[in-house]
Amino acid sequence: MLEKFKQDFSDQFLFFNVDSGSNVGFGCGHNSNLLRAESEFFLVTNVDLEFELNSLTVLVRSAESDDSRVAAWECRQKPYEHPKHYDPVTGETLWCSSACVLFRTSAIRKLGGYESRIFMYGEDVELSYRLRAHGFLLRYVPKSVVWHYSYDEAGQVKPLQFLGSTTANVLLRCRYGKWHEVFVGFGLYLGLFLAPPQFSGQRYQLFLGLFKILRLAPYFLATRHRSDAKFPFRFWDYEMIREGAFYKYQDPENGKFPLVSIIVRTMPGRSGKLREALKSIAAQTYECIELVVVEDGGNSAQTTIEDYQKNGFFKKTTYLPQKKVGRCVAGNLALAAATGDLVCFLDDDDLFYSDHIEVLVAEWMKNPELGAVYGLAFQVKTEISSHEPWVYRDLEHSVIYRQSFSRVLIWHHNYLPIQTVLFRRDLYVKYGGFDEELDNLEDWNLWVRYSLHHDFLMIPKVTSLYRVPSVSTQAFERQKVLDDYYAKAQEKHSRLRVQVSPADVLKMTEELSRELYVAVVPAHPLRNLVLRVPGLRRLYHPLRRAYHLFRKVRNRPRS
User: Fold this and answer.
1) Quick one: how far is CA 505 from the chain centroid?
2) Distance separating alpha carbons of residues 525 and 557, to the nearest angstrom
3) Which pLDDT value is given to residue 215?
4) Which residues pair with 75 in a beta bridge?
């Protein structure tokens, strides 16, 4: 087949070569091609993918314009994007999937290419780690898209991938992990023998994999790398994972893309934060965007906004410098200026992942009657060294809110970080904007009022992040302010009126009881027993969270 392809299409390439022989594995196969490479860049791809129009052009241009320290540029995969974390501002990532990645030829040739002892799965992580250990950077390029048909269905467990990735994980721990991570790796692998099999013959294949690990571990231990690079092993993952591994991307059937207005509120003295927020918007894979920036108390952002206007990053750009008017008034001025069909807020200290708008718009288009859609978000504990210039360090990412839409619960407490929500602009036209008597929790009041009339929908995928202080005293002061405004917001909500049937009242009562008072409606005899014993009751919620985390980890796709 390849010879026939060469015969038909060789005139379209500067050089065309076909190697045949025994199966030496993914990495070794590409190493043989690397020996012949004469160009500045070296593309590695799988055979089961298709390139979107101009995806290679975007990828190569990114590489040509990038820092010489960057050694790899990874394409985004559809319909299932790899869920690993990347920096929403810089695109830096800890490892690149070799399903489709462009390498700087000199970099990987200097390091000898892929590790030949890893046959398949994990060899891309090992090469990524080795590049980083030698001072190179890796980049994720979400606007370069390939369709990779690697799964027949969401949550599919592929035996070869399962076995190859778990074996590679232990070996990579031997080379790059701390000593306790090495022992944890062996423990995790042995624990698989105790877990229920996910496919026929799993335990037998695990035995074979164990012999391979024991045979190769001495070599990987003897070649341990010492560097300043961090290699964060997280169970079977090689990086922090964004929930939503099997969210399936689909292009709109009618090919129409509504205009989305993204409103950014900022203030003087926050230029560094603003630039990062705008970079995360400019990196969006959804292109039909209107940017509205309102600056409360000055015009220091004018030059920055003009640069975006001149370079044509967005369909429309509006800048609203104001005298000091407060968060709510500034937000309302921006809402009045917005012209999009849909609206989303991004305060200047929050960030979007590149697929944020694309994901939310796609889901809303399936059901335009929805008032709003929202995704999950990382809460990031941030250690701030300086506000201007903006110098900080992210310490911890966690998903705090993963609540499916509940009208009664949103009335009780706010589980919707402001940047997670995409809503119809006509809700603002009908029901107004922020309550200007609230300086905090104004977004909660907005969601409560809108939810009186329309349903919201949660998308179980992490698409954004927001920052909170890492210093305990600052976190305490922040929470104290929010607690003070909670009573004010609740008083505002008490004035609202909604028509519900008696059946709706009963349903809401039961829903509120299940969520807030779990002992009232026990779902299982064991759970009931745990909740009745004082010592065990304290452990219930941590154990439940650990159980759900275990299920998510177990069902994630592995490299």
Assistant:
1) 37
2) 33
3) 96
4) 141
- In 3D, which of 351, 518, 512, 510 has the Cα closest to residue 419? 351
What tokens appear for 454 in the block? 């329309």
What pLDDT sits at residue 527?
Answer: 55
Q: In angstroms, what CA-CA distances link 371 with 257, 361, 363, 402, 498?
A: 17, 12, 12, 19, 16
Minimal CA–CA distance to 361: which of 342, 340, 377?
342
d(CA 293, CA 331): 10
Q: In the beta sheet, which residues pair with residue 121?
A: none
Enter the tokens of residue 200.
Answer: 């026929």
Between strands 391-398 and 342-345, the pairing is unpaired
Is 144:56 a contact under the CB 8 Å cutoff?
Answer: yes
* Residues contacting residue 534 through CB under 8 Å, at least 6 positions apart: none
For the full predicted model, state whether its pTM sits above 0.90. Answer: no
Domains of the chain with CATH codes: 25-148 (3.90.550.10), 260-498 (3.90.550.10), 513-555 (no CATH)
Q: How far is CA 365 from the centre of its chain?
A: 21
Q: Which residues of the chain have pLDDT under 70?
A: 1-10, 12, 14, 252-255, 499-500, 508, 514-559
Residues 6+ apart with CB under 8 A from 186: 170, 213
In tens, the pLDDT along 112-126 reads 999 999 988 999 999
Residue type at 263 in one-letter notation: I
Residues 171 and 185: their CA atoms lie apart, in Å, by: 8
Best CA proximity match to 441, nearest among 491, 387, 476: 491
Grouping H, G, I as helix, E, B as strand and the rest as coil, residue 289 is strand
pLDDT at 528: 56
Distance CA 556, CA 559 (A): 10
Say how far apart CA 424 and CA 534 lie, in whole Å: 47
Beta strands in 323-370 (DSSP E): 342-345, 351-352
C-alpha distances in Å from residue 450, one per residue of 329, 384, 455, 493, 521 = 18, 35, 8, 12, 29
Q: What are phi and psi of 11, to 5 degrees?
A: -70, -10
Distance, CA of 486 to CA of 44 (rounded, Å) = 54
C-alpha neighbours within 13 Å on the C-beta side of residue 337? 20
Q: pLDDT (tens digit, 9 = 90+) per residue, 43-94?
A: 999 888 999 999 999 999 999 999 999 999 999 999 999 888 999 999 999 9
3-state secondary structure of 208: helix
Task: Answer whether 382's CB lies under 8 Å from 469's CB.
Answer: yes
Q: How many residues does the chain have?
A: 559
CA neighbor of 277 nearest in space, from 288, 266, 268:
266
Q: Which amino acid is at 517?
A: Y
* 506/502 Cα distance (integer angstroms): 6
